[in-house]
Amino acid sequence: MSTAMRSRWAATVVASLVGVLAACGTSGPAPTAAAGVTTVERPAVAAAASVEPTVTPPVTPVAVPPEPAEPATIRGEVVLVALGKFPEDQLDAVESHLREHAAVDVRRMAAVDLPREAWTAKRKRYRADRLLESLEALIPDAPPTTRILGLTHVDISTTKPPFDDWGIFGLGRMPGQAAVVSTFRLERKARDPAHVIDRLSNTALHEVGHTFGLDHCREPKCPMQDAEGSIDNTDAANDEFGPECTAGLNAGFPIVLRPAK
Ligand SMILES: [Zn+2]
Ligand SMILES: [Zn+2]
User: Fold this and answer.
1) What is the pLDDT of residues 199-218, one digit of tens each?
2) Any idea which ligand is nearest the CA of 245?
3) Which of 65, 120, 152, 158 has the least CB density, counted as fewest CB within 10 Å?
4) 76-241: what fold?
5) Where are the domains of the chain?
6) Mean pLDDT of 236-250
7) Is the per-residue pLDDT at 10 higher than 80?
């Protein structure tokens, strides 16, 4: 990476951080000034005890507190869709993981059937590249910052020379708009359902990272590390992208104010 690129990334990171911090301000601790005022005299109470109330005090309109502000900044939107039957709790987990760690809005689409043309009888798997094509067809006019992520429990595969049909956890365009993740291989030797959800969330973030232009990296415990045919890197990964991948994401897809709806 050139020095110019680095400094541009750094500038973007700083700009993004400022935005994130500003958005987080609304959920910080409440102002403490009022807490110091503890010596309020209470003559009104004493008076009320000795005087019969005759007049109902006027009702002062109380200002309705504003709705808690949602984070005001996003880098894009991910449309989440189940390909065939898929557990609701796993969809929920992926949605919240992406919102939190990819800085995206997530929109849910009703489940769609697995496309027949993606089925390969030879290995009894679905071709992931075919699944990406059918996912892309679901969002034909989406803005350039919108992605679609399909989740499925069936086994999926792609061509990975020298293998013409290589079973995978997930596949994402790099960059592009579609990605797909399968729990078929993520369930193998998982300790419990929560472990599957961790792996699924991590892999979903990884594939969405590809769609936003991130390649595999060597950052320790970064979710963008290559799986290299094993689940070990997925299990070891942090929830957050590493600094280099974060900088790359912010350079290509800056976090911006959420567009008004
Ligand atoms: Zn990858
Ligand atoms: Zn990384």
Assistant:
1) 999 999 999 999 999 999 99
2) 2
3) 65
4) Collagenase (Catalytic Domain) (3.40.390)
5) 76-241
6) 97
7) no
